[in-house]
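User: When convenient, might I ask for sequence and structure tokens for a protein?

AI:
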Amino acid sequence: MTFGEALELMKQGKKVRRSGWNGKGIWVGLHEQQDSDDMGDYIYIDTTGLQTDNPAAPKSRVPWLASQTDMLASDWEVVE
């Protein structure tokens, strides 16, 4: 699917990833502003489930910006 379709699914609470990403267990989602926080809406990447042999690889959830390659890709998929 396209990035636009993936974005619409994120707005519905789904997690998405690119099938072409090297790291397994990585996905992006949408944080929507809650009444109890002062953060606006933003897309984040979650690497807490990253499957790697590298013990120094970061495993966290941080804000994410799509690259032009990501925005033009058609290999987006839903993470179940």
About this structure: The chain has one domain: 3-79.
